[in-house]
Amino acid sequence: MKQDVVILAAGKGSRMKSAMSKVLHPIGGIPMVRRVLMTASNLENVSLHLIVGHQGEQVVASCQDFSTNEVWQDNPQGTGDALRRVASDLDPVGSTLTLYGDVPLIKRSTLEKMQSAGHDNSLVLLTTFLDDPTGYGRIVRDAQDLVKAIVEHKDATSEQHQIKEVNTGILLAPNKFLLGWLDRLDNNNAQGEYYLTDIISMASKDGVNIVTVHPENIAEVTGVNDRVQLSWLERQYQQEQAQLLMSQGLTLLDPARFDLRGNLTVGLDCSIDINCIIEGDVTLGDNVQIGPNCHLKNCTIGEGTHVYDNSLIEESTLDSQCVIGPFARLRPGSQLGANAKIGNFVETKKAIIGAGSKVNHLSYVGDTLMGDGVNVGAGTITCNYDGVNKSQTQIGDDVFVGSNTSLVAPVSIQSGATIAAGSTITKSVEENQLAFARARQTNKNDWPRPVKKS
Ligand code: UD1
Ligand code: CA
């Protein structure tokens, strides 16, 4: 039997002061609502329901790759109203887990703890204790410590305001009870909303067992209402990721100045200096050193490679023992062989650069197929674009390209060829040839330098 999981994401999130729906704001580079879906879809045997309203099209579009039942909640009237809109899609003999699109860091292990605490005749609540419970629904217990009700902050008495145990909102309920309770909800409260939390007192009156489970940490159940909370939660997430990576053997020079926006896989003894951003899927082989202020996006970096300060590497693959930067930009499609060197102010794009080849200074190498052992002098440009078409430059093994050379593609420089510095190469060069393509120098004796008139 499948369990229904309902994710509430219809709210406007006005305190974000954003044109974008609140649940689309990212934590660790991934929209909050996607994080919730990723976690929920990893639970065994679940049917996912996504409640959307405000900017629902964008929310749905950002979750297209998950198979969810999208339910529209136009004119949202509270969390109970949201559940009512999906009621007819819930399995009458199953159970429903309710999650929130703006509570992104909820852990699978906590949800599994709730699942194993629940059974046919019990309601499971995820609660926690806060020093400052302002704004949260309070858990009201009787003398026997049994949960009797949840009272919303705005409806609570001053005595109830003292209660430190709060409702995280996340709950698991058997549908055979839930559907009846939802029918009986009203909106006679301070906010004029249908509160999902009102089902707790109904459950208590119906003699249903109410079990409470607690999360591992506060970040897991923290909701985002404004950008200050978003940034706080982002830091919590980043700290946790940094610790996880360090526990896997990665050296982070300062875990507080490290940002992961995707997945990082590391080999033995890698190290990452301060202010680096890791985005998408990044894999580092053993002994890779990343200098400060680098941004690595969807790339694989081979063993022993050293990336110096301020380099940007995107959609690229680097073999072992390469040396990159400082200030290098490897654009998508850069593929470096072992021991290749890309130095300062060098840009590469769709470039295959063979083993041991060097492009050390101030160059652009795009749409290029380069062999092994090539030396490209400073200021070399592959002219790959005529305004309409992109053309390829081919450079064979052991070619030497002198400084300040333009290689006008399509063009081929065969193995062992040498290009004189300052050349503009428009015709292919054969193996072992020397190509000069620059104006000859003329020297004039005793040149009468012009003199200023006084
Ligand atoms: C809710 C709980 C409160 C709990 C708090 C935890 C209720 C009545 N109260 O309060 O006990 O302490 O969460 O953070 O449930 N949403 C919809 N449709 C709606 C209303 C809300 O989809 O009609 C979504 C919102 O987008 C949001 C979530 O449900 O993601 C929570 O709604 P919100 O109004 O923020 O609830 P709280 O007042 O914070
Ligand atoms: Ca509210």
Brief summary:
The chain is built from seven helices and 36 strands. The chain is α/β, with parallel strands linked by helices. Bound molecules: uridine-diphosphate-N-acetylglucosamine (UD1) and calcium ion.
Fold and architecture overview:
Helices cover 16% and strands 33% of the residues. The protein is of the alpha/beta class and 454 residues long. The strands form 6 sheets. An 11-stranded parallel β-sheet has the order 12-14-16-18-21-24-26-28-31-34-36, covered by helices on one side. The longest helix is centred in the middle third of the chain and has 21 residues, at 227-247. The N and C termini lie far apart (100 Å). The site of uridine-diphosphate-N-acetylglucosamine has 27 residues, from strand 1, helix 3 and strand 10.
Question: What's the average pLDDT?
Answer: 97
Uncertain runs are: none
Residue share in helix = 10-25%
Any idea what the shape is?
Answer: elongated
Largest sheet: 11 strands, parallel
Q: Structural class per helix/strand content?
A: alpha/beta
> How many H/I helical runs?
7
Attached small molecules:
uridine-diphosphate-N-acetylglucosamine, calcium ion
- In total, how many beta strands? 36
Radius of gyration: 31 Å
Strand content: 25-35%
Question: How far from one another are the termini?
Answer: 100 Å
Neighbour order of strands in the largest sheet: 12-14-16-18-21-24-26-28-31-34-36
